[in-house]
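retry 2 of 3: previous attempt timed out while embedding magnesium ion. Reduced batch size to 1 and resubmitted. Inputs unchanged:
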Amino acid sequence: MRIPILEHILSANDRLAAENQRLLAEKGILVINLMSSPGAGKTSLILRTIEALGEDVRIGVIEGDIASRVDADTIERLDVPVVQINTGGTCHLDANMVRGSLDQLPLDDMDLLIIENVGNLICPTDFALGEALKVMIPSVPEGDDKPYKYPAMFAAVDAIVVNKIDLLPYLEFDLSAFRKLVTGLNPEVQIFEVSCKTGEGIGDWADWLAAMLTK
Ligand code: MG
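retry 2 succeeded.
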């Protein structure tokens, strides 16, 4: 009788992601895969993070978008090394795209790499990039029911940064119901409440990130 041998074969993307992870870990760089729907505030959080940590932490950024380099131009104004990837229609970044842009970053002079994924709550979940941490940004105008609709994303991340809390008085978003829903899907997740517009809550997020950098 033949006994079937089940091999866990990594997909090509997973293999490349593991290579990226090894390379970046060797350089001592913490890598964040930052995900959200379009307009939730990924670029704004990156700008606030640079403002909060940029004096002590050497930050590099990869910007993922279907088209344009408007976000990269915004980041570049802060004198932070940035590479723009245009996916040309693909709804997520993959490990190969990230690998291609690593050569354009000063890896020997970086502590933190923030990868801004394409705005999408579905596809980025399935494509590891080589990150150590997955972070997602839900924002108040999107509504508090998104964990019901995109459970895989909420379950996969290490931290959730709820943005635009300055709009809470004007919109129906039940933060405690949202927290309960999220921790039901992902008991270990860190949740932050911020406004990238006013700066509220950014300190807690930056402190957590700084602690992750020293781990
Ligand atoms: Mg952006």
